[in-house]
Q: What sequence folds into this?
């Protein structure tokens, strides 16, 4: 039993850990795993780790609010960019929509539908709005909530839209992870950690989506059904998802 634990990789330990075993340093600079028949690496984020990261991110937002009491530029509204920003946004809402400090405003949350990716590693030519903004942000400091900032295209697009078309006073990007630090030079950013550019993060909201988009890619690059199953197990997929979706996805034309 002890030998098995010693042989387990840090990646395996963290995607299978209990909530009291979350390694803060690992999740600030996480790395994915390589699988057969794919140039990308994959990072599977468990539910309780998503909740932990959101709590740490909320703490940084709270610190921003404290630091800006005198400047009167505290965040009063937050826009969750769908679909990616919904999960971190809902988790942040639990921390930030209420306040125990009279000097810290509760944050009103809303949504804006923006699409920029067709699938893993496949950005569209430009972002586009697919669902309208659900709250009024005129004159407000607005937090823009995403799950991951890669090239920064969506963040820049949304910031420009909110300020120029919706008359927001300014925007602050809020995201668990950045793949590039370039966006930090262009706007205010509150984030938790960094992830390598070649790594695809699989959050709790996109496990099935990633599976049904990536298994055909592996198959078309020569992977057998058994190799696809081994890839998913290595990434960290639970058996119930593999047994439900793998064969049907693999055999789909």
A:
């Amino acid at each position: 039993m002890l030998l098995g634990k010693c042989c387990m990789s840090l990646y395996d330990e963290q995607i299978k850990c209990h909530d009291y075993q979350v390694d803060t340093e690992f999740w600030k600079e996480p790395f994915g795993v390589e699988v057969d028949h794919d140039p990308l690496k994959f990072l599977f984020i468990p539910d309780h780790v998503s909740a932990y990261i959101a709590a740490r991110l909320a703490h940084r937002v709270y610190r921003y609010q404290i630091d800006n009491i005198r400047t009167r530029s505290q965040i009063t509204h937050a826009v969750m960019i769908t679909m990616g920003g919904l999960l971190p946004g809902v988790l942040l809402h639990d921390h930030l929509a209420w306040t125990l400090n009279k000097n810290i405003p509760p944050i009103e949350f809303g949504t804006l539908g923006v699409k920029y990716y067709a699938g893993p590693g496949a950005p569209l030519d430009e972002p586009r709005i697919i669902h309208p903004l659900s709250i009024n942000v005129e004159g407000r400091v607005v937090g823009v909530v995403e799950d991951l900032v890669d090239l920064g295209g969506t963040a820049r697009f949304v910031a420009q839209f909110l300020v120029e078309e919706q008359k927001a006073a300014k925007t602050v990007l809020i995201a668990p992870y950045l793949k590039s630090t370039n966006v930090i030079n262009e706007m205010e950013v509150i984030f938790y950690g960094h992830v390598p550019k070649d790594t695809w993060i699989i959050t709790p909201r996109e496990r099935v989506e990633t599976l049904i988009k990536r298994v055909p890619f592996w198959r078309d690059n020569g992977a057998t059904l058994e190799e696809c199953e081994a890839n998913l197990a290595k990434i960290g997929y639970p058996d119930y998802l593999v047994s439900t979706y793998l064969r049907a996805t693999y055999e789909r034309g």
